[in-house]
## 1
Amino acid sequence: MTASRTPVRPRRSGKGPRERTVETASSLAITVIGVAFLIPLLWVVLASFDTSATLAVSWPQQWSLGNFAAIWNTETTFRPLANSLILCGGATIVTMVAAVLCAYPFSRYRFAAKRPLLLTVIFATGLPITAIMIPVYSLFVQVNLIDSMVGAILFLGASSLPYAIFLTKGFMDAVPVEIEESAWTEGAGVLRTLRSVVIPLMRSGLAVATIFTFVGMWGNFFVPFMLLLSPDQLPAAVTLYTFSSQYGQVAYGQLAAFSIFYSLPVVALYLIMGRSLGTGFAAAGGVKG
Amino acid sequence: MSTTASAARPEAGRRGTGRSRRRAGIGDRLSLVRALPMLPAAILLLAFMAGPILYSLYLAFTDKAIRGEGAADTSFVGLDNFARALGDGDFWNAVVLTIVFTTISAVIGQNVLGMTLALLMERAHRAVAFVMTSIVIAAWILPEVVAGYLLYTFFADGGSLDAILGVVGLPKQTLLFSAPIIAVSFANIWRGAAFSMLVYSAALGAIPGDVQESAAMDGAGPVRRFWSITLPLLRPAIATNLMLITLQTLSVFGLIFIMTGGGPARKSQTLPLYMYEQAFSYGQLGYGTAVALILLLIGAVASLVYLRLLPEEDKR
Amino acid sequence: MPAPMRPSPPGRRTFLRIAAGSAVVLPLAALAGCTGADRDPGTIRVAYQQFGSGTQMETMLRRVSESYTAQNPGVSIELVPIVAAENDYFTKNELLMSSPRTSADVVYEDSFILLSDVGAGYLQSIDDQIAGWPLWDEIAPASQEAFTGEDGHVYGIPVSTDTRALWYHRDVFAEAGLPDPWEPASWEEVLEAARTIRDSASEAAPLFVFSGKAQGEKASMQGFEMLLYGTGSTLYDEETRRWVLGSQGFEDSLAFLRTLFDEELTLPLSQHLDPNISETIYSTLLPEGRLGILLDGSWISRSWAEGAAGAWPEWSETMGLAKMPTQHGQDPGSVTLAGGWGWTIPQYATDKEAAFDFIEALCAPENSVLRAIEDNHITVRADVAADERYLGYSPTVGFFTELLETARYRPALPAYPEVSAAIQEAMEVVMTGTADPAQALAAYGDQVTGIVGAENVQEEER
């Protein structure tokens, strides 16, 4: 299966007129779709530089940084973003550490419960987290974890763990065992082997998994919306909602500016990762026959 | 974790698996000490995933509430919550809307558009394809709340869509109020098409070029080639993709919550929003949990189907 | 191309075994122990609603806490502004009060949610505290009652009350050729005025009535109940102690709403569904003369007060007031509803005595006068009402205070918030045209029966 796969179909050299027509028509079609997708994105960019922005996309009469200046303060922007960073950064660390540790035995040893355990993990990746938020909320009230950043971090971390384990195990499987064996014979323990041999070899894979995890958490609204209550603990996802319900009809430009601040980290991560993020998805579900 | 990212498979994980596919690792039996690194993950999963699920099995049979009766002391009510759900028109309204939402936005919208984009991407001029797919991916990478707000402004009274309709001389639309489920479905297509596109584009890339070429030499036209060669080869990818986007769409909350709040008059209230409203706006935690449990069951069934569709390699 | 691999079905039995194995739930509580309660006993946390651009509450709290902490070294006041619209505020507040970790020590509550929160055990009685607080007797009996639970205990200190009427824009009226002063004697006359504005050269939207779920309690109280209580029907029969279903008045009130939309006598539906519309009305539509008539509360002029974000000094000349007439002008001719807000102490307050001490500071005579003026509210206190500054602060205070004499109150019952939600839903299906008034009435009946039980409802005799 693996062998039969060619990553990119080689482009036929020398295009005939027929190919050219297909190419032009396809380019045209994809442009139409792309432009349709672009309009809302264009709105947020243009509106953020337009202090008299309306709901419709339009070229600013006067370009201004006024919207950014208006939200350039701790209350509106910095604290929510810092909270997002603490929440998502913390949860990403929790997830990745637990995932790497868990993936190692999965990848390296054989045991009777391995397959059912792995199946359970994969099964859990499909469960709608939305559906367990109400019991999680009630449970957190019971055990006094509600409105606790630590509690939210642990839950968010746990909720993306199944998928992270699955990903990490895949990357780890690709690390040849032979190299490790020498480390083992030198008497290194599991943790040291992991740290000095396995992790360096799967660095790029881990980066992809970490970024997936982080990006997913960064966009998550429901979890912090349910688990965090105090205004000074709320991450950007939730304050954007309160801001929009509070001023959404009056301060479009500021909302657009805040949306941009809030989206910037994930967009930047995507740009840094470039297509390799896409490639990460290249093998996405069901690609294999 | 937002469900959008939850379907990627590590490419690297597969690369070279042929080489290292030796069953015997370093000491191939798992001992207690060797299992120790699995402990943090096990604790987290048991406490925060299995725990709440089990707790919901209890909660769904009680009258636990945030305010009024059932808040001060909770009592068992047996199957009352489920009976109430099944007898409640609003619950069925939510079920129907969930089906509509999933069908329009995932099964039809994201799936077909994703496939179309993937096919076009292969044929279009490279630079054009790159720019356009980047836009589509940008829509997908944005946080859910931002996407919701952007699409709200797009469909709003006097929003971008109205402006465009005005330019071509068409009357204003009122989708957010007259057919909000359509508006949120479009929003979900906008947000999710990139995922299917990436899945299909990867799957198309895996089809050997010579298969297509030999068919072309046999005189099969592009449409015929697509139906009789490409599509059958893509079938497993389509099945898995459908399961994944269905699962993702089932748990969409923020997008709808921001755009319409489930309204007006419950016309875009899918199950997650109904569950939230009952549990929080109306304070009926027990009843809300019963609804959540039903949603979880639907998700679990879909997840099991997905599990069966997954290639065997991934399960070893 | 090899044939696609058929995944073998997951071993169902093994799967079940794992699922059962995971049933060993870990004691989460041990985890919670690490985070523990992090509340500082010397801090008094004060929760209040912060929504829109108004900051009167924050200004007042800062002022009082500054002087309070100066007098009480070692105590600090932490403000907990809850940024949420109408209904969300109450829910969020309840969520916060439900846990000792998150509960505030002093909470600003609307009287309509109070009994529900008392029923849920979120609030504590302050009987002992008011016994030693001389100003309690200055509070109007109706307000005292509103903060007394079904068990006879007092659960809060009432601060303000409010009444509702029709605000009209004199410029719009002049343009449409409508009289000033305007004294509509029936619903029909209100609608006629609205039609006149619609058909006039004025660009203004004729009439706005808060409706639908997005407006929360505003829709129920400022909107629906201002209509219903003018029909002779009622929500709750005090004598039989049952909720009234299927009433003609209920249906007529919904029909009134339907008329507004059918005849385009109001703002577009999209604006009605915007939870933030009140802000738009106060800050833009009225000052710009783009709305003719608004059915709203006594306090709204605070958005236009000097120093407020939307200061509009001309409001007192521009805005006229008319009593809301009963349906056909039947006795007593006009209708208003009164509500009110006050300070309460949650069950999980760290130090009840300290919390009440701070409430005392908030309710001290001088501050109460200032607060009433800043907030443009109607005081519930005789001593405040006697203050000259209070009497002269606004041209409207006399009008609205007078309305109190005939004011109606919402059913003071724990189930009211849920019934109120059902009302908002009935309004919403009618205004969106999803159902006609009769259908909405029937659906309301089903819902209320579900909320309070069949033994607590009765059909109105028609």
## 2
Amino acid sequence: MSALAKIRETFRRDQVFDFVNKQDYSRVDTSHGQILYVEDVSVSFDGFKAINELNFYIEVGELRCMIGPNGAGKTTMMDIITGKTRPDQGSVWFGQNINLLKMTEPEIAQAGVGRKFQKPTVFEHHDIFENLEMAMAGNKGVWSTFRARLSSEQHDQIASVMEIIGLSDCAKQRAGALSHGQKQWLEIGMLLMQNPKLLLVDEPVAGMTHQEMDKTGELLTSLAGEHSVVVVEHDMDFVRSIAKKVSVLHQGSILAEGSMDEVQNNQRVIEVYLGE
Amino acid sequence: MFYMLKGDRGGQALLLLLSIAVVLVPVLNLVVPEGHALHVSTFTVTLLGKYLAFALLAVAVDLVWGYMGILSLGHGAFFALGGYAMGMYLMLQIGDRGVYGNPDLPDFMVFLNWQEVPWFWQGFDNFWFAMIMVALVPGLLAFVFGALAFRSRVTGVYLSIMTQALTYALMLAFFRNEMGFGGNNGLTDFKDILGFSLQSDSTRVALFIASAAALALGYLACRAIVVSRLGKVVVAIRDTEDRVRFIGYRVDHIKLAIFTFSAVLAGIAGALYVPQVGIINPGEFSPLRSIELVVWVAIGGRATLYGAVLGAFIVNYSKTYLTGAAPEVWLFALGALFVLVTLYLPNGLAGLSKKKEAAA
């Protein structure tokens, strides 16, 4: 944005200054049924358009699968939603009232967007219980973190999440010693501890056995409804087993959207991705 | 009350030893007559006091390096700033007993033909003002430096080099006479503190006790941080910074808080060091000194806190011994010690006991 454009934006006459009208991150307004609005978003890296006028909406409680060939912009899309990358243009709103593009990563996480990385990322030197404890929703300022003590309800909450992700038996085990699949589940558990309204899950079944995949599928479907879930995945069988609605990403924009069958029969999708 | 020491056997041993030393050393020095086999000389008391100050400094470094993963090669700067603040107070206590006998100006200012004490020396004749500055000046520098560095997410080697540059720049600045801190010679020729002569045995013993108390309190404070949830998050930042950010912690704030706290501890250590050795000069800012203290922590064992104390004592005792017995060997010995520990004891000396525990 040029300096002039920035000044114009600052002095727009149809709205008050940001510091007068502070965003309230604590409550997401989803009265119109949508939890995430991604509109007209573009970003380029050194001239390469990673995301190109991307538009999509996620409904409350929906489980959406995003598929697409390598380099289609799936991870970049997640980076934009979680505040790691700033788009060149477009808007990303969480509910109707929270503008994600003006927030930092921790603020976005606090507002209720949880993210699982492509590579399972847990705190390897801490045990499972501690991993979940750190992720727990609450005031995460320096002083309150220093003074934090676990209440019995919080204990129960951690126990119930360990139940959900199937790791109840090994609360005191170091996360670094877990298997690949268990780490993936632990990371999903850490997201759940944050009480997120929207879960972004990047390749949850990469490197998993079939049994583990089935278990992950069950886990994700059970989470939808209470939370909105966006799953980015390569594995078609897995996507078919869990997805109601699928979006196909290609060269940074949505190529097709619909049920798995519709998408698979879409001529353009067959050309770029599924076919041959 | 000492909940933070639960399960920390090294820390329990350290506090026990400190309490014994605080009782025993003064008795052996002041009560047991000189010439008696059990008499501890005042020289030894001061030496031990100096080691205690170094140990506190090592604990401060261990907190940011061992736990948070920030390899600071500039902690000597915070130590020296705390030392200078104390030195300025001591300088103004000399009064007309200096070589030039000027009641208002310290000797080096008379020598430089200055007419009055510069503005930034104002207030340092008050002990409590000086003590506040001991914590405030290093803390403020760390806060400003950290705020800039952590906000722009400078990490790893780049951050280490910047801390190194920071202490080097301060060294060059303090070497200059115009800075008003005594230039090359620094501040020395101290006479008394709070009205007590620095040469007397009882003052030396009091400084020793103060150092032991500061180390104990500093250790407990660091330990309280380490066992809290904040401490867990700090270690998590060391291991996977991105994950911490995406579960909603302001990583830059946490880093800044810990870094500043550590700098304040280093400053206090410096303030205890200066009256015991009787001099502070820009050599304390030299990058070599900062690297040396990282070596103490590495040898003692990172991320254990008591290991840092152990390392500070062992390396400094060897230094005292070797620089007396065979001065030319010292640097080689330090290098060899560092290489050997890195190769065979990656967790330092504290790692030895852990290995035994794991094997048992």
## 3
Amino acid sequence: MNLLKSYFLPRLSQWLITILVGVTVTFILPRLLPTDPVERTLSTLSSLQTMDPRAVESLKEALEDLYGLGGSPFEQYINYWKRLIRGDLGPSMSAFPTPVIEIIGAGLPWTVGLLISTIFISWILGIILGTLAGYLPKNLWCQIMDKIFISIYPIPYYILALILVMSFCYHFQVFPLVGGASGKPEISWSYLSSILWHSFLPATSLIVGSTAFRFIMAKALTSTIIASDYVHYAETAGLSRWRIVLFYVIRNTLLPQATDLGLSIGAIFSGTVITEVVFSYPGIGYSLYMGLLQADFNLILGITVFSIVGIATAALLVDLSYPLLDPRVRYK
Amino acid sequence: MQNRSKFIVLLGLVGINIILLTACKDQTNTTKTTSSSKSQLPVDLPRQDILVVDQIFRYSVVENFNLWMPGIPSPTKQGLIMDSLWYIDQETGQQINSLSTASPRYNKDFTQMTVKLRSGVYWSDGVEFTADDLVFTVNNLKSNPGMLWSTELELFVKEVKKVDNYTVIFELKDSNPRFHYQFTIKYNGVWMQPKHIWEDVEDPMTFKFNPPVSLGAYEYADSDPSGYWELFKRRQDWERTTPGILTGKPGPPYIMSVFYGDSGRKAMAITRHELDMVQNVDYEAFQAILKKTPTARSWYKEFPWAYPNEQSARYFGFNLGSETVLSNKDVRWALTLALDIVDLQTEYIGGVARVTAIPHPASPPQMELYHTPLEPWLKELQIEIEEGIFYHPYDDAVPKKIAAWARKQGHSIPSGAEELRLLFGTGWWKHDPEIAERLLLKNGFTRNRNGEWLTPDGELWKIKMIVAPDEVEIYRLAIGAQDQWADFGLKLEIETLQRDPYYNRNLMGEFEAISSWSNASTGDATRDKWQAIFGLHSQFYTPIGKSTATTGSTNTLRVKSKEMDRIIDELDQIHPEDDRVVELGREFMKLWVENMFSIITISFKNFTTVDQYYWTGFPTNENPFVQPLYWFGGGRFTFQNVAPAAGNTPKQ
């Protein structure tokens, strides 16, 4: 009971407050944008069809009504929370009348699928290779790895992505140029293999970049740890190298690595706009980007709610898991 | 240790070199794949059966075909599965009678419009299209505010009556000689709804109309849940649709629109023969396409390549909604004469567009109606540079000067005056900085020691211009103006904005100067300037700080002119086919030019590109029978004429 009161409850309250504040700020911010969704729709329509100026005023009123922009901002805010509690994110204004949840539902699985897998692969690879490079600094292969990752790390992500596209979609036309899969979603080997095939380049670009970052981080952490007394003691005691690396070095670098993992997973709900654009890969990032440009209040809010909840929850879980990873951290 | 490092660096360098050398390898000798080869397109169909077209954006809404709702993406598909009464072909300017067999018949005071419908046209579910569908569509849209065309139909239509299966009468609330424009398609217009489907729909606003019952030659087959592509299949009974009836041709078995992204990715897709028709690419991407894909081309086979007949023109505009030095027409004329259009059109645009001095696109039919007849007036036009001293600013030698530049670049250019006008447009304004200087001095401007201009108040003269860099041409034109006006002693500051805030600032009037398109300089491919200028009437005038989009105004430059109101009022009362329509259009253009309300520079051009590897029959400059703008509603007739290229035998 005491543990719940002194450790869990404060963190849960913090989680709840973060979400409340985040959603409120996200509700206010798009309304401060110079772009208005009704004006934008009217502007688009007038460029696409014969619009008699005499009919515009009534169309404007009808659209405001449809988009739920009637009433004061406070009334809109209250209505938004009421809808949110029911799980209704409202209709998208730029893709009216499509529900926001439908747009998120179409993009989110791609983003989650791609990012979860690449984050885990790069996290594991980065830690293992970085720790080895830190632990065995004189080994030739570790030095080669070191040089490669240090060379890759400063390359801006979009350049790396473009090199992959140019090389494997244009000069060697190996991979498809567009989409996340071939055909309609179904549980079959051909569909699943097409997902793997389509995601190979975007995943490679993400893995290469973030493995480089995690490699450097793990190597730096390892360099500090190997100077510790307990590592020297283990070596003096004649423990095998693998045992030292796994149980003495990696375990003691895990705390910051777990924080990195947790926050990276939490942030996936914001999507990766550059990956989606460069590889024409489906996902939620492009929807958020377009929502911002088109002042689609509901879409921005919808995606951001996922993102806020994701990051806040990840931070909470990481916080709660610290004592499990490192016994030196106490539930206090 | 040192040797090891050297070895690693060497290894890295060798690796990079291998990649670069491989990447730079010219691919032009790639052997032609057989027509039955498997492509990497996302559908499991033979490549030779599919015409792949550029989807101009990624759809955020999929599997929703309620194109009567704002927000549902329509490009390309509206032409494939929808239909309406008339189309205006954007290349020829001709009206195409689609579901109607003739032009609308109005009574004398334009309060009644009679429409004769075509018989023998069928929906894809086998039901015949009749007057019932048209009457139902109008009434259904009228009774659902928020659906497209609802407010217009409610505003104008008193009653719509079926006379027989193929005759409908519209009783209008007021005189309106242009009511039929609602059903006349350029890009979009009132699409017909199948009564037998929609009459049972409870909520037409949320109804997805999926699968859509098609009235076009194609029907929906499949789409990407992520919005990257859509696939349409040719109807078995395509001969019972208006594209089939009017062209007598079947078109490709499948049409697929794919969103590839930016120009670079489109160029890659063409090189892979995975894209047959492209809406537009930038100049550099087009050059890359030409280099790598011998079967690709744009409107012209050779320079200047690009399609020059889309109905709009570019301009430099000034905010006239508040009193500034730019409110003075002499100042605007001075800025015009300080520009060198030949340099702008060649060095900044690559010589691939037609120049136009009047607020109207310079497409061949429009040049015949407006540019050519106005040329004597343009040559006679004088501006007063000092009291009692007049100056002829028009230079009809501009096309020749552009041709001379093009020849220097090694392009083969004809020498006939008429051919040059068709390639590079009509004349423009002289590049005469000396006259520009006299105009400014006349109005109290002075130069400082550095030769920079000071306003009559003694302040250093700077103009701030907003531009959207992803609108490549208007951006390049702005950069050109910046360079040329800098030579003249004027500092132009360019503020670059992403497209949406740029549009927003334009509509709100929150700019001093703008490089843009549309506004008064648009055309409609017809002789009637009404559509482009009606929104300029002072009854819709919108002050700075309020968006013109919400008031019906198209007057983003905040021009005020009683003479313009007079022209618009008269134009509004007469039928588009009235002879006076063209005269009023010319009067409007003269008024615009005399006052230099905006500096019109070049006509719209698009690198609308086709790859003839799998398909042929596309409209080109040599055979301009129909518009190449396939993403417009009239694209339905463009597609219908596309046929397999030599060696490509569709399986279906």
## 4
Amino acid sequence: MHHNGSPNRILVIGGGFSGLTAGIEAAETGAEVIIVEKNPYLGGRVAQLNKYFPKICPPLCGLEINYRRIKVNPNITFYTMAQVDSISGVSGDYNVKIKIKPRYVNENCTACNACAEVCPAERDSDFNFGLNKTKAIYLPFEQSFPLRYVLDRTACPKDCSAPCVAACKYNAIDLNMQEQIIEVKVNSIVVATGWKPYDAAKIDNLGFGKVKNVITNMMLERMASTNGPTEGQIIRTSDGKPVEKVAFVQCAGSRDENHLPFCSYICCLASLKHTLYIKEQNPDAEVFIYYIDIRTPGRYEKFLNQVLEKGGVNLIKGKVAAIEQDADSDDVIVTAEDILSGTKIKQKVDMVVLATGMQPEGLEFKVPGLKYAVDGFVIDADGIYSAGCAKNPMDVAGCGKDSTGAALKAIQIGVRR
Amino acid sequence: MDKPVRPDLQFAKEIIKAGGESLKKCYQCSTCTVVCSLAPEDNPFPRKEMLYAQWGLKEKLYKNPDIWLCHHCGDCTAYCPRGAKPGEVLGAVRKLMIKDYSPPKFLANWVADPKYLLLIFLIPILLFMGELFLLGYFSGTEIPRGDNGEMAYSAFLPAVPWIDLPFMAVAGFAVICFYLGVKKYWLDLASQYEIKRKDIYNCIYETIKDILLHKKFQLCTTNKSRYSAHILVLYAFIGLGITTGIAAFYEWVLHWKSPYPQTNIVKIIGNISGIALIVGIFLVIVNRSKNAAKQGIGSYFDWLLIFIIAGVGVTGFLAQLLRLAEIETLGYASYVAHLVFVFTLFTYAPHSKMAHMVYRATAMVFAKAALREEGVKKQEAA
């Protein structure tokens, strides 16, 4: 409660790790927080990771803790499948319109899966980057929060007899649900819109989508996750063969004026982490990491050495700039100049992982009323504070700290009035 | 132990000034080397050249055929993540290399700097104006007409001595400059690389075949239309060379004076080549403009040659049309302009971009002799 009696209200745009942190930290000081998330679940990119830095542990317990903090805190309201439509007003007194898309499943849902069992239609799983399919009515992932199914009407044929409605014993499916617009008044705004993986198909010389067994680092995260499309098995997408030789292509679209001009911070570490995933499943696997510079910011240098100790990890200075299919197998051939020896080398591998970078959501999708830098990162304004990867590429630990800081700045706006 | 590397920052600055402004943006990722279809597997270019250029290692750049094995496809520039434009940087290095190899140096400075543009053209303009003055055309002498009473440039400016003398002089001068330059270049290359093949004549033959078939240009991917534009200009020049040869034969052996009938073989070859030259150079201009963002627009040095070649083609053709139409003053003016352009083309050939023809061919022969092209051959075969 604020000193003059009116509540200190904060809007948090984005319900990923940064948004959750900022929102919960603020709410735990007594502020009223509204979290707006465009996905049907909270947790964002972190929810898609198999393991995360710095402890290389599964992120789900970290997320669980945050979900629990939300559940027990009456100061937090969150909207999933929601987007900010407009922001007007001034610092201390913002008027925000929020558009909430219909989920077609209400809070009666118990996640019993009866609807999905009878659903005749399928869609590509966006959570798993198209590596598998879900039914048109689906649970995004096992630990989704809120634990509630969602219906993708675009994947559901118009003449569908909707057997799901009949199969649901709880009257949870409501096909008449409409888009809603709500208006809220807030004192300040935290922008935690995060990032998405850079579209690897745009890097036309790296063969993604054209050459078999070329995947992205985030696809590998899903593959390595036990709740993922291969139940944790790192195998080739083309024939299910377990991988023995894997090439990692660093800076795939990062530090590149033709794509993302900045360093995405985490990709070198991610590839080293992925090397551990691969080595865990097959200690004899050979890994080739092609880099411009191996970047292990701050104390992460130690992690590089830990991974190198595993053996069979080849670091090659030279960016991969050509990827082709082997003429008579599903193998992939990568070409780079091994700069230290000055030779153009071709390496045949089972699978190639493109270490694609972080494209700030703001590059393609801008929240009306916010200011953005040319590369899509959010520019802070009076009463509007960016947090996490909406501001700058960073690791999850960095996002946590940055979001706590943003929360404090947001709280001050309401208190200072 | 290796000798310590001594950077020559002055030379690095010269490269930057010569059109390699983007040089320092390179962060040595070697995307360029991989996307380059012309680079050999062993010690490929242009990544190492970018490093040499940043350090100003002139010897490393010059005493290596690689700067000329690059045909400026622009694939490297298109894919460069830093906008360092390796293609443009190598172009700048080649420009400086021409200056350092073709004597005399002052001529190279003239063609490299826009402030000498007027001077370059003033020399032939004064030369031919002087000839017209000596012939008395400025003091009322009537311009003679051909044997059949038609407008004839051979009557206006008889080949002997007014055309053949100055042109043979400048051609001879160019040949001497080229000879000295190529000799120095070959010795420098041979000081660094072992010549592994003894059949130099075969190397020359293979190089000529590569050039005539434009084998290297075919490997470019970003700018495919460059191949057709460049090959058109090359064949136009070959055609115009043949035309000049036949015309010389008519003039000197048969004592048959121009103009020749439009149906004569010399006119047919000449006209086809002339049109090819105009179309080819037009395509060069269009390509360069169209691909400017991806490939780089090129430097003044490049554009001067393009301008001279376009000038040769357009004035030559115009002079013919005006002669056929009997439009005297304009016709004679076009003819003189044509002579001026051809004169600049010849005189500055060893120092202008035109020299690429000779130095690149030398580098290609050397590369074959030193077995530098292994690995690229495989790609050609594919």
